[in-house]
Design brief:
This is Phosphatidic acid phosphatase type 2/haloperoxidase domain-containing protein. There is one protein chain. The chain has 20 helices and two strands. The chain is mostly helical and 537 residues long. The chain has three domains: 225 residues; 208 residues, Up-down Bundle (Vanadium-containing Chloroperoxidase, domain 1); 57 residues, no CATH class.
């Protein structure tokens, strides 16, 4: 078939494509199928060689594992870096990334992409343990073990999972990346996957063939699911794009995290300087207060209250209250604060399509952490003279880090939610901003870890820092601008209504305004025709 040209009634020439699109689609499909088959065959070959205990492969695996162990083991900092990189391929981080992406897609009503991520991820989760149980290969044994991992060795779950998870996320969100940066994004994902695989060999928990098998199997499964998605599109009558465009190019606006935000901050350098100055001033306030409480309250009523409250709370200790206070105290520790932040911030991006509220929360928590650590180290205040249920902690008593973190997080969330949500349940976030810090404060004093003035220090830290960030970042600027516009329209409408009601008709209202203007200033009289025309509309 060749291209043909036809002339329509309007005189324009329309050209039919002929075999071109079909040929291009077939070529892409065949190449994709060959890549999937190659990945599957490569994995199958490695699986067969491992099962047969092929000596050359075993010798290569053991020599590579031992050689990398000899290079890594004498350098603890290198081991630390390798373990940190390996965490990027851990199940916890990848599950969080995929879950966040699925929730974002569902909120943005891109259900098909969400289903693709779920199916692809579940497949990887099933393949890894099944094949490990089937093969039953033991992990490497090296001279100086620097890491341990449970379960069998073949294939590498980190290599398989990272290939599938990061590859699927790349295919879904690639349309949101500008064309000039797409090659960079692809290269970055490839670098992450390769780095994760390398760490598993270097840490001595996988053989080289385990990692290669994980990559090949992951690529094959990713290819199968991507091909199935393309068939799904074709069956629904949609264009089947090249994978270099992503799975759904038309979803670019919805898969972009913050499509409605032109710039994060209007003057970033000025804002950074203001935040830095505010941080220094807040630290100064905390240091002066903490120094005064530590060195100049001995024998005063302040010391009596500070030491008396923990002693009084100690008299109520029971096993049940100890457990309850432990739970409340954990609500303010680093892990729980981080967990709440990692849940709230993605929801903010998905719902409000802006980064500025996320920046507000991130800076609130980062600033709180640095202020707490700096002030605690500078002040060095001893903890209350009672039994400490949490044992000896590395930081001093003033200010309370648990309470400050809880206050900053939940106050920041309330600041963001209150003006953006009109339903009654927005007040639940205000209640959380009161209840959570109160519960954590009582638990920390009950457990003998803090004085009441430490709680005061946490409150001062929160008030100063959150106020500063609210003033500099203006996290609700988009909502405020919208409210001002609505208010302006409302005032304008009220003025027109008053004029119309007073004069009996729009024309009379214009005459009334013009009459009033004639007795006033010349400028008012000159503005009268505009008002008349406006009211008449």
């Amino acid at each position: 078939m060749t291209d043909t040209a036809t002339t329509a009634d309007d005189g324009r020439v329309h050209r039919k494509a002929g075999w071109g699109p079909l040929r291009h689609f077939t070529e892409r499909s065949v190449l994709g199928l060959l890549a999937v088959v190659a990945g599957g065959l490569g994995f199958g070959l490695l699986l067969l060689l491992v099962r047969l205990h092929w000596t050359p492969l075993q010798d290569l695996d053991h020599s590579v594992a031992q050689g990398l162990n000899n290079w890594v083991a004498p350098h603890p900092p290198v081991v630390t870096v390798l373990k940190a990189i390996a965490q990027l391929g851990g199940r916890t981080i990848m599950l969080w990334l995929v879950t966040v992406a699925v929730v974002l897609l569902l909120i943005r009503r891109r259900t098909r992409l969400a289903v693709y991520l779920v199916v692809t991820g579940i497949g990887a989760l099933l393949l890894d343990p099944s094949l490990k149980a089937l093969v039953g290969r033991l992990r490497p044994v090296v001279d100086v073990p620097v890491a341990i991992a449970p379960g069998n060795s073949f294939p590498s779950g980190h290599a398989l999972g990272s290939m599938v998870a990061y590859g699927a996320l790349l295919l879904v969100f690639l349309p949101a990346v500008s064309r000039r940066w797409r090659k960079f994004a692809i290269g970055l994902v490839a670098l992450i996957v390769v780095a994760i695989g390398f760490t598993r060999i270097s840490l001595g928990v996988h053989f080289l063939s385990d990692v290669l098998a994980g990559w090949l199997l992951g690529a094959a499964w990713l290819g199968v699911t991507a091909y199935a998605f393309r068939v799904w599109r074709r069956e629904t009558g949609q264009r089947v794009p090249s994978l270099s465009e992503g799975l759904e190019p038309e979803a670019a606006h919805d898969v972009k995290p913050a499509p409605d935000e032109d710039h994060l901050l209007p003057h970033p350098w000025a804002g950074a300087a203001e935040i830095l100055v505010g941080w220094v001033l807040t630290f100064g306030v905390l240091f002066v207060l903490g120094w005064a409480l530590t060195n100049h309250t001995a024998g005063t009523w302040i010391q009596s209250v500070d030491d008396g409250v923990p002693r009084w709370l100690q008299t109520f200790r029971t096993p049940a209250l100890d457990d309850l206070s432990y739970g409340w105290s954990k609500a303010g520790d680093t892990h729980m604060i981080l967990l709440v932040s990692l849940v709230f911030c993605p929801l903010v991006v998905a719902l409000w399509r802006r980064w500025r509220p996320v920046l507000f929360v991130v800076l609130a928590m980062f600033g709180e952490l640095t202020l707490f650590l700096s002030a605690a180290a500078a002040v060095g205040r001893p903890r209350p003279p009672v039994e400490h249920l949490d044992g000896k902690l590395p930081t001093s008593s003033f200010p309370s880090g648990h309470i400050a973190a809880t206050m900053c997080l939940y106050v920041a969330i309330a600041v963001l939610v209150l003006p953006r949500v009109k339903a009654w349940w927005r007040w639940l976030f205000v209640a959380l901003a009161i209840i959570m810090p109160t519960g954590v404060a009582l638990s920390r004093m009950y457990r003998g870890m803090h004085h009441p003035s430490d709680v005061l220090g946490a409150a001062i830290l929160t008030a100063c820092w959150i106020t500063l960030l609210w003033w500099v970042i203006k996290p609700n600027a988009d909502v405020t601008a919208g409210n001002e516009a609505d208010a302006g329209e409302l005032v304008e409408g009220d003025q027109e209504h008053e004029l119309t009601g007073a004069a009996g008709s729009p024309a009379a209202a214009g005459s009334l305004r013009a009459t009033g203007s004639s007795s006033g200033s010349p400028r008012a009289a000159a503005d009268a025709p505009d008002v008349d025309a406006k009211v008449t509309r």
